[in-house]
Amino acid sequence: MIFMVVEKFRNQDGKAIYERLREKGRQMPDGLKFINSWVAADLSRCFQLMEADDATDFQRWIAEWQDLMEFEVVPVSQSRETAIALGAAI
Questions:
Q1: What pLDDT, on the 0 to 100 scale, is given for residue 89?
Q2: With a cut of 50, which residues of the chain have pLDDT below it?
Q3: pTM (predicted TM-score)
Q4: Domains of the chain, earliest start first
Q5: Does the CA dihedral 34-71-69-58 come out positive or negative?
Q6: 39 with 46: CB under 8 angstroms?
Q7: Is the separation of the CB atoms in 23 and 64 below 8 Å?
Q8: Distance of CA 12 to CAs 18, 25, 41, 62, Å?
Q9: 73/3 Cα distance (integer angstroms)
Q10: How far apart are CA 20 and CA 65, in angstroms?
């Protein structure tokens, strides 16, 4: 399943986040797959697409970063798939 993860940087401290990323990597468990990410221009948030079959993979990953960020994890699907599921003509 695909998820949109919104990371809210505590105190807009992107520098601390990138320092840890450089030192320790993403610290992701094996079941969690990073797809891509985008950072807000003001360094307040990061938006990531990730894939996982088990929500506990997110819990393990978030535990490593929660001192620097708050997280919102939203399951998402492509618009085309949703339209087909709802019977819409596309």
A1: 65
A2: none
A3: 0.83
A4: 2-85 (3.30.70.260)
A5: negative
A6: yes
A7: no
A8: 12, 20, 11, 18
A9: 6
A10: 9
Pairing relationship of beta strands 2-9 and 33-39 according to DSSP bridges: unpaired
Record the tokens describing residue 38, joined without a space: 């985008």
List the structure tokens of 76: 């998402």
**Structure tokens given for 71:** 């997280």
Q: Per residue in 55-81, pLDDT tens?
A: 899 999 999 999 999 999 999 998 888
- In order, the DSSP letters of 21-90 are HHHH-----TT-EEEEEEE-TTSSEEEEEEE-S-HHHHHHHHHHHTTTEEEEEEEE--HHHHHHHTT---
